[in-house]
Amino acid sequence: MKVIISRKAQSNLSEIVEYHRQKGYLKFGRKIRARIISKIMKLKDFPKIGQEEENLKELNLGHRYLIESNYKILYRIIDDKVFVTHIFDTRQDPEKM
Predict the structure, then answer these.
(1) pTM recorded for the entire structure
(2) Where exactly are the structural domains of the chain?
(3) What pLDDT sits at residue 97?
(4) What architecture does CATH give domain 2-91?
(5) What is the three-state SS of the chain?
(6) What is the pLDDT of residues 2-13, one digit of tens each?
């Protein structure tokens, strides 16, 4: 399967690195980004590895998620593609999703 990371998810990744940079932990931010990307790439071979996202079920779009550290990777499977839609810090209010 082909994995596509949306602009929003790419922006989320940049925000994660920037947050850690501002806190003085740029190296850690880059490490988290690499771990998130590695987890996303597993979706090429195992697209249904993630559970269904309960908070988005009412949209009826089939959102699934993976967890890496404190981050939830939200994605959808459409035909033969996996679309990563958001990367969400699980320490935030789920209503912000």
Answers:
(1) 0.87
(2) 2-91
(3) 47
(4) 2-Layer Sandwich (3.30)
(5) CEEEECHHHHHHHHHHHHHHHHCCCHHHHHHHHHHHHHHHHHHHCCCCCCEECHHHHHHCCCCEEEEECCEEEEEEEECCEEEEEEEEECCCCHHHC
(6) 999 999 999 999
